[in-house]
Amino acid sequence: MKDRGELRETRDTGFREELPPGFWDDAKVVMSTPPKSVHLKVDAEVFDFFKGQGKGHLTRMQNVLRAYVRAQKRG
User: How many domains does the chain have?
Assistant: First the structure.
């Protein structure tokens, strides 16, 4: 599977939901900006907390920071 460039196994369940006419009429392509690579020092307590939750600790840290930024922007 991986050598064919597939990320995960897909199965055809036979279920096909039909979308209503015009479903995509107002759709817009939104291109995200590429992430910036930074060197960030954090307290050992903070890093250990996220790392202790297992794989994906950097993504979880990013999600917390993103949530904080969005909350601050809302005021």
Answer: 1
Name the 3-class secondary structure at 75. Answer: coil
In a domain, 30, yes or no: no
- State CA 44 to chain mean position distance: 25
Q: Please report how many Cα atoms fall inside a 13 Å half-sphere around the Cα of residue 45, on the Cβ side.
A: 0
Q: How high is the mean pLDDT in each 10-residue block of the chain (75 residues)? A: 66 78 92 91 97 95 96 93
Burial class (CB in 10 A: 0-12, 13-18, 19+), 27: exposed
| Entry pTM | 0.56
Asked whether residue 56 is assigned to any structural domain, the reply reads yes
Range of the domain at 48: 38-75
DSSP annotation of 37: P
Query: Which pair of structure tokens corresponds to residue 72?
Result: 């601050």
Alpha carbon 19 to its chain centroid, in Å, reads 25
